[in-house]
Amino acid sequence: MPRVAARVLTVTSALAALTAAIPLGPPARAAADSIIVGGRPVPVADSPWTVALASRDRFGGTRAGQFCGAVAVAPDKVLTAAHCLRQDVLGSEVSEVPDLRVIAGRDELSGPGGQEIPVRSAWINPAYESGSNAGDLAVLTLSSSLPAGSVIPMAADGDPAYEPGTPATVYGWGDTTGFGAYASVLHAADVEVLADGDCARAYPGGVKGAYDASSMLCAGRTAGGRDACQGDSGGPLVARGRLVGLVSWGSGCGSPTAPGVYTRVSAAIRWMAGEG
């Protein structure tokens, strides 16, 4: 796992959470399973395309086995981060996870209501690079369809939703503090899309990681304090009513000098079309 890690809950950390807060290592580092820091609880009904990726077999019954986020872009298709499906996260190949599913329409992960829909198949972007988190995209096909109103449009190249300064919102069930306080209800945090130059200065390479504007974007606040964190990986970043990013990686959670980095959805559209 890269030193600047993706934001997903691993099998090991899920088991540790049953008896203690999940250790994140040095405070400036975030693991691959971020949650919303500096956010607020929100009803799933207001963002029905936000779904949880779960496996009780791999992550236990706490929080219904949630370990990543995902977002519905078609009634039977959801996007998530490729790193959520890595073998070191799941403990095996994704095809060997017997109960991989999405949880939709449910405010509290272990509560009543909503749907739990099995994943029929998974496509991991062939261009994904685990060392750099470039190409961090996976597409899951569901065994049954969500309601048509439960999907969100994707922002293509040139969409004004990508303009720096655009208000955006990130959603997830992840760590709300950066120190292992995982949410049981959906949270959201208001951030803004940042300029590529600012992102490149925050992540110039080396131990902090390298920002690639062709496949990534970053979002946060100048003062910090609002961000995705552990457990939020694969969840949506939404601006102007369109999906612009998927939670991918970052250094710490909510730092003013290290904003959250997201898979750029305009790039994801090209990868899904086989355009590289």
Describe this structure in words.
With 276 residues, the chain is mainly beta. The protein has a single domain (1-276), classed as Trypsin-like serine proteases (Thrombin, subunit H, Beta Barrel), CATH 2.40.10.10. 11% of the residues lie in helices and 27% in strands. The protein is built from five helices and 13 strands. The protein has helices at 11-16, 56-59, 87-90, 196-202, 265-272; strands spanning 40-41, 50-54, 66-74, 77-80, 101-104, 115-124, 138-142, 167-172, 187-193, 216-220, 236-239, 242-249, 260-264. The strands form two sheets. A six-stranded antiparallel β-barrel has the order 8-9-10-13-12-11. It has a six-stranded antiparallel barrel with strand order 2-3-4-7-6-5. A hairpin with a 2-residue loop joins strand 3 (66-74) and strand 4 (77-80).
| Name given to the CATH homologous superfamily | Trypsin-like serine proteases
Category by helix and strand content: mainly beta
Reported CATH architecture: Beta Barrel
Ends: how far apart? 24 Å
- Give the low-confidence spans: 11-35
CATH class identity: Mainly Beta
Largest sheet: 6 strands, antiparallel, barrel
Order of helices and strands: HEEHEEHEEEEEHEEEEH
| Assembly context of the chains | single chain
The general outline is globular
Strand content: 25-35%
Number of strands: 13
How many separate domains make up the residues?
Answer: 1
What is the spatial order of strands in the main beta sheet? 8-9-10-13-12-11
The helix content, as a percent range, equals 10-25%
Rg result: 16 Å
